[in-house]
Amino acid sequence: MTRFIPREKMSKKARGELDRRQRRSWPVPPVTKAFASKKDYSRKRKPCDLQEDGSQGLRF
Predict the structure, then answer these.
(1) Of 9, 10, 21, 28, which cross-links 14 as Cys (Cβ 3.0–4.6 Å)?
(2) Are 39 and 49 in contact (CB under 8 A)?
(3) How far apart are CA 11 and CA 20, in angstroms?
(4) Residue 18 near residue 7 (C-beta atoms within 8 A)
(5) Cβ(47)–Cβ(58) under 8 Å?
(6) Where are the domains of the chain?
(7) How far is 57 from 60, CA to CA, in rounded Å?
């Protein structure tokens, strides 16, 4: 059985290895993901897709 060593006293290499092992088991990747707002203008989206009520055209 290995002895417990506090993280503050570990070497930089040992802390990195510990972080890599823990990161693999995370259910969500640690990278922040940003989602585009539906209010933002996009040329890829059709104007009729901007309105949720299904009517045609843009409403300002």
Answers:
(1) 10
(2) no
(3) 14
(4) yes
(5) yes
(6) 7-50
(7) 10
